[in-house]
Amino acid sequence: MSAPITRIPPLLPVAAPRLYGAGLTHTGLVRERNEDAILTDPSGVLWAVADGMGGYGHGDVASDIVIERLSEITDAALAPQALRAQLHSANADILAQTRGSGQMGATVVAMLVQNSAATIVWAGDCRAYLLRGRSLRLLTRDHTVVQDMVDEGLLGDSDRESHPERHIVTRAVGVEPELDIDATVVPLVNGDRLLLCSDGLTACLGDQDIAEHMRDAATPEKMCDALVIAALEFGAPDNVSVVSVFAAEA
Is residue 3 part of a domain? Predict the structure, then answer.
C-alpha cells in the first residue's frame, strides 16, 4: 500500500493595494491665519499633517519646517527610522530658529507606506484613523493632558472634548531638546481608507461623524471636502486639515 499523499495548493500572490489620496487645509472661521501644513504624495507613499502651535507664535513657520523635513524622505528609506530622523531634524531646526525670538512648535502625524504596510508616527494631538469595512479605528493616542487623565481614570472618555484643558499637548516638535515620538505599523488591504487630521477636525466632529463621512465619500477628494465642510458647519474655531488615502485593487 502506498503512503497517502497530501497536496498543498500553492498560495496565490496577492497584489499590493494601490494607494492614492488627497489633502485639504482650511483656516476655519475664527483664526486669522492658517498655521497648519499638509504633505500629499502623488505616488501614494508619504503623507502628513502638521499643526502649528499658534499660542507660541509663528506656528505656521514651525509646521512648514516639519513638512519640509518630512518631504525629503525617499521612497526607499526605512520607514520608522526615516520618519523619526526627519522629525528630530525638524525639532532641532525649530529650536535653532527660536533662540532669542520666543517659542514655537507643531504637532504632527505622518505616514509612510511600503510593502502594503503603513508606518505612522506622531507627536501631539494630530490623529490617524483607519476605516476597514464599516469599522473605524483610531490608530494614534493623543499626547495631551486630558488623554493622560483619561488613561489614569480621572476623566471619562466622553468628557474629554468639553474639558477646559483639552488643547494642552504634552508633546510637540520644536518645544523641547528631546522629542519623544510614537509609532505604529498597520498592514493595509484593498478597501482600506485612512485619514490624517489636525485637532481642528476632531474638536468639531466625533468619531461616528468622521466614520460616516469616510464611508460615504466616493473619492479621497470628496472625503476631504465633506469633512472640512462638516467642521465649518460646526463653527470651525481652529484651522482644519485633513489628508485622506484610499487603498484600492491594483
Answer: no
Does residue 155 lie within any of the structural domains?
yes
How does pLDDT run along the chain (250 residues), one tens digit per residue?
455 665 665 554 567 899 999 999 999 999 999 999 999 999 899 999 999 996 667 899 999 999 999 999 998 899 999 999 999 999 999 999 887 566 899 999 999 999 999 999 999 999 999 999 999 999 999 999 888 787 777 777 666 666 666 778 999 999 999 999 999 999 999 999 999 999 999 999 999 999 999 999 999 999 999 999 999 999 999 999 999 999 998 6
CA-CA distance, 47 to 241, in Å (whole number)? Answer: 12
Three-state secondary structure call for residue 49: strand
User: pTM of the full predicted structure?
Assistant: 0.91
Number of domains the chain is built from: 1
66, 83 contact by CB (below 8 A): no
Contact 244, 20 (CB under 8 A): no
Give the side-chain half-sphere CA count within 13 A for 105: 21
Does residue 11 fall inside a structural domain? no
Domain that holds residue 63: 19-248
User: Residue 28's domain is classified under what CATH number?
Assistant: 3.60.40.10
Q: Find out whether 148 and 170 touch, Cβ atoms under 8 Å.
A: yes
On whether the CB atoms of residues 139 and 186 are closer than 8 A, the answer is yes
Q: Is residue 169 part of a domain?
A: yes
Residue 154 CB partners (closer than 8 Å, separation 6+)? none
